[in-house]
Design a protein that fits this description.
Elements: H1 16-25, E1 31-34, H2 40-43, H3 55-61, H4 72-81, E2 83-84, E3 108-109, E4 114-118, H5 135-143, E5 151-154, H6 155-159, H7 168-172, E6 177-188, H8 191-197, E7 210-214, H9 218-230, H10 243-261, E8 270-280, H11 295-298
Parallel strand pairs: 1-4, 4-5, 5-6, 6-8
Antiparallel strand pairs: 2-3, 7-8
């Protein structure tokens, strides 16, 4: 028996308000606004094996949601909820410190759904102007515009402080709390099955392939880790939470925070460890594909 085409032919006849609600339902519930492209040597700080390059995932994550490319009505719904964050190095608020070489150009920003994340670490090559502001200011400013009011950065940022950030503790106090990504899990799935099997964890249409989850949210952590375990193709591509590496990262986070604030009379902001999950559909597990579909392109 031939499979029937799954098309709802009566959708255009539904009331406009109902169609718009359906389009809104297709938007990802959680998103991450990455301000810079990640560097795998910094991201996998406690992981010897680097499953794949991360650039292509970041590129997909920075695009407008999938419904923006369906029709005019769905596009209007998408752009009614979010916008392209214009990249202009000469604009008045130079909070990103001359806009790091690794800055993501024109990323999608949805204030109702985004966590603002800074991938910057000292391992990056900077185009740094001494008079520019610290990038943490820009992260805090954007996060304050979001509904969740959540901001995050990588653990490596705390482990490699430099003289550039002479007022580091003061900058951290720009916010009452921060999420710190202590571990990265890359979930590898074929693009043909990702939408069916990812069960909305990366958005209903898998158009939010980067997710950051607070370690205190045990239910979401468990769901993502179960997906990572179920999607493993072989030991070379599979990856899930490693208890030993996670404990090492948490110990490093505790040490870094204690060291930074041990002689500071002011109380430290709340620091919450988090895990970053990334959905890669580049078939890295296939022989010869290495860390990404196209090594030259991903480099």
């Amino acid at each position: 028996m031939e499979s029937q085409e799954r098309v709802f032919h009566f959708f255009p006849r539904l009331p406009t308000e109902l169609r718009q609600q359906i389009w809104q339902h297709c938007l990802p519930a959680h998103r991450v606004l990455e301000l810079q492209r990640p560097l795998d040597t910094g991201t996998y700080i406690f992981q010897e094996r680097k499953p794949c390059k991360l650039l292509l995932t970041t590129c997909k994550n920075s695009c407008p949601p999938g419904i923006s490319r369906v029709c005019r009505e769905s596009r209007a719904v998408a752009f009614g909820r979010g916008k392209v964050l214009a990249h202009d190095p000469d604009r008045a608020d130079k909070h990103l410190g001359a806009y790091l070489d690794s800055a993501v150009r024109n990323p999608w920003f949805d204030a109702a759904r985004d966590i603002v994340h800074m991938n910057y670490e000292n391992a990056f090559k900077l185009d740094y102007r001494p008079n520019a502001s610290n990038p943490l200011r820009y992260v805090a400013k954007l996060a304050a515009q979001t509904t969740s009011n959540q901001a995050s950065f990588n653990l490596g940022f705390l482990l490699r402080p430099t003289s550039i950030f002479s007022q580091f503790t003061s900058l951290l106090r720009l916010r009452a709390s921060w999420l710190v990504v202590v571990y990265v899990v890359v979930v590898h799935m074929d693009p043909e099955v990702a939408v069916a099997k990812a069960t909305g964890l990366f958005g209903l249409l898998c158009d939010a392939p980067v997710q950051i989850v607070d370690l205190r949210d045990e239910e979401r952590i468990g769901a993502f880790n179960a997906l990572a375990l179920a999607s493993e193709k072989n030991p070379l591509a599979g990856q899930h939470l490693n208890d030993e590496s996670l404990e090492q990262a948490l110990a490093s986070l505790d040490y870094a925070v204690t060291t930074l604030f041990k002689e500071d009379p002011e109380p430290a902001p709340a620091i919450y460890p988090a895990v970053m999950f990334r959905l890669c559909t580049e078939k890295c597990y296939q022989t010869g594909r290495g860390r990404g579909k196209n090594k030259k392109r991903a480099a």
